[in-house]
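Design job #97: recover the sequence.
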């Protein structure tokens, strides 16, 4: 127990941020898996992204945001949001992107996470950029929840209640 506490204390900030990232990513992935393929093109109004486009956007953001905080390579093929439409392709791309983001968390110490990088017109810590990614994921998870509710599905974060 003492060894675990010591390891946690050494990188407590990254560990805590990773726990929030894990909660968010799990809900997004479960929503992607739960929504039937025929609803991936669903959009409540023509002005908003479809369910599938939101997933593609979230996958793209992993490369754009986590990639700023650590070494991460965007795969060939361009924007996931603009090139993937099937459930299988979007779920696979989402999982790959999130796993790459997980690797960034796994590679950072608290000291490295405190390093400043250019982001949103200023200098921000790498940890702040990772926090922005988690917030962005939850922002779009909220969209996914609404789409699922419209289609009569219980979102992952509400299951078992």
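Job complete. Output follows.
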């Amino acid at each position: 127990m003492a060894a675990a506490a010591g390891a946690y204390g050494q990188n407590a900030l990254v560990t805590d941020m990773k726990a929030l990232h894990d909660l968010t990513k799990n809900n997004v992935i479960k929503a992607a898996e739960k929504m039937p393929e025929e609803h991936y093109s669903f959009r409540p109004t023509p002005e908003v992204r479809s369910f599938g486009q939101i997933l593609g956007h979230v996958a793209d953001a992993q490369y754009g945001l986590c990639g700023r905080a650590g070494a991460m390579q965007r795969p060939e093929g361009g924007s996931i949001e603009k090139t993937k439409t099937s459930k299988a392709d979007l779920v696979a791309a989402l999982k790959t992107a999130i796993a790459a983001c997980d690797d960034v968390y796994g590679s950072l110490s608290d000291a490295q996470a405190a390093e400043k990088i250019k982001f949103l017109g200023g200098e921000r810590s790498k940890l702040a950029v990772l926090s922005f990614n988690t917030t962005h994921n939850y922002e779009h998870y909220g969209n996914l929840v609404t789409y699922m509710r419209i289609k009569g599905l219980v979102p992952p974060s509400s299951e078992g209640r």
